[in-house]
C-alpha cells in the first residue's frame, strides 16, 4: 500500500506503524460520571467495519507524524489522508 | 455409512460406485431449537457436539458460502496446547485431547499427526519464560520438554543455529502437538452432525437478527426468516460484521494473516518449528509442500489477501532460520481474516440479548481450538452455563480487568 502523506507525498506503508481506529483521538473525560464505562468503550470496543475505515498511522520511519488515513478494509484502497493533528484540532482536541 | 478398511477394499473392488454424499442439502425449516451461524470448523463442531454429547434435536448450521470455506480452509493446520495462563491452558489441553480421539469419535480420517511442535529459544530470558510456560503446561496435564541445541540439531540438522542476531540456544517442545488435515476436520464434523440430524444449510447468509423485547427470536437470511430458541454465532473474522446487526460492538479488530506453501518436496521437516523472534514458523504437509507463515499484516482488513512487505518479512525469517528454503519455490499464498481480540484470547459467552450466544475472537489460534471450542460452545448453548474449561472467556473480562493476555501486549490487537 502507498500512503499519500500530506507533507511528504506518496510513501510506502512499510514506513508506518498502525495503531487502529481514529476514534482513539476522542479520549473520554476522566472526570465524567460515566468515566469507567467510557474508558472501557474507548479502550476496548471497536466498530471494525468492512468498508471505509478511518484509522491512525504513525510515520515511524519518516517524519514521525501521526496521520488519519481513510482506507477501505475490503479493497485496501486509500481515499483520504489527513494530518492527525489537523483532525484533532478541528475537534478541539489539540492546540 | 461408516468408514472402515473393509469398506475401502469393497469399494475398490466394485469400482467405487457405492460412495454417497456425506451430508444432505436440506431446505431450511421454519423453526429450530438451536441455530449456529457459520459453517466453519467451530460452527460444525458445535453442531456435532450439541447433537452427539448434549442430546439436542432440531439444530441447523447456516453458512453463507460453502462449509469449510473460511478460516478452517485457510490456516496452517497446527495443533498444540503450549499456553501459559490459567484461563487458556486447560482449554487448549482439552482441545488437544479431543484431537487425539477425534478420528475414532467421528469416524473420519482427519490425518491427525502428532509430529511435535518446537518453539525456539535465543536468549536466557526467553529460556526462563519458556521454562515457566513448560511448567504451566505440565501442571495442566499437558506435555512439555526443554531441548538443548544438540537435541534440536538431532531432529532438525538443517537449522542455522549460529545466526548472528538470533542464535538458537534451545527450545520448548511439545511432542503431542502436530498437524491435522484442515479440510477433513470441517468435513468430518459436518458428516457427523448430518448423521445425527443436523441441517447444514449452505448458501444461506444471515442478514439480520429478529429481536423483540431483548430476546432473539431467530435470524433473517437470504432464504427467508428462520426462527430459533437459541442462536449461536461462530463466524470468526466476520464477527464484528455479524454482531453489528444486533447493534453490538465487539472488543476486536479483523486483521489479515498470510500463509504460504512451497512446491512439493521430499520429506525434510519432520515436525513444526516456530521461530517467534524471526516472525516465522514452518511445517511440511503430507503432500510435501512446506507450509509457513509469520505475522499479521497489521492493519484492519477483510480482504483475505495481504501485502508484499509481510511476504518479504516472513521469507527473510525463513531464510535466517533454514537457509535451504531459498532453493524452494513458492507455490501458493493466501490471507485469512482473523478476529483479533483485545487481549489475544477468545470469547465464548452469552450476549446481553436473551437467546443470542457468541463464539469468536480466536485471533490466529482458532484451528487448534476447534474441538474444544465446539464442545464448550455446545455446553453453553445446551446448558446455559459455561463449560468448566471456558469460564474465563467472558465478554465482561475487558470491563472488569480480567484480561487473558498471553503476550502481555495490552489492548493492541495487531500485536497479539
* Largest Cβ-defined interface: A-B, 28 and 25 residues
CATH architecture of the largest domain in chain B: 3-Layer(bba) Sandwich
Taking all residues together, what is the mean pLDDT of chain A? 96
Strand content of chain A: 25-35%
Task: Note down, in words, how this protein is organized.
The complex is a heterodimer of chains A (95) and B (416). Chain A has 95 residues and is α+β, with helices and mostly antiparallel strands. Chain A has one domain (2-90): Folate-binding superfamily (Folate-binding fold). Chain A is built from two helices and six strands. In chain A, the strands form two sheets. Chain A has a four-stranded antiparallel beta sheet with strand order 3-4-5-6. In chain A, strands 1-2 form a two-stranded antiparallel sheet. Chain B is an alpha/beta fold and 416 residues long. Chain B has two domains: 26-77 and 182-251 and 349-415, 3-Layer(bba) Sandwich (FAD/NAD(P)-binding domain), CATH 3.50.50; 113-181 and 253-341, D-Amino Acid Oxidase, Chain A, domain 2 (2-Layer Sandwich), CATH 3.30.9. Chain B is 27% helix and 26% strand. In chain B, the strands form three sheets. In chain B, strands 1, 2, 8, 9, 10, 11, 17 and 18 form an eight-stranded mixed beta sheet that branches. An eight-stranded mixed beta sheet of chain B has the order 5-6-4-13-14-15-12-16. A two-stranded antiparallel sheet of chain B has the order 3-7. In chain B, strand 10 and strand 11 (224-233) form a beta hairpin. Chain B is globular and about 65 Å long. The termini of chain B are far apart. The chains are: A alpha+beta (95), B alpha/beta (416). Chain A binds chain B through residues 1, 12-14, 17-21, 36-37, 40-41, 43-50, 53, 55, 71, 73-76, and chain B through 238, 240-241, 244, 249-254, 298-303, 307, 309, 342, 398-399, 411-414.
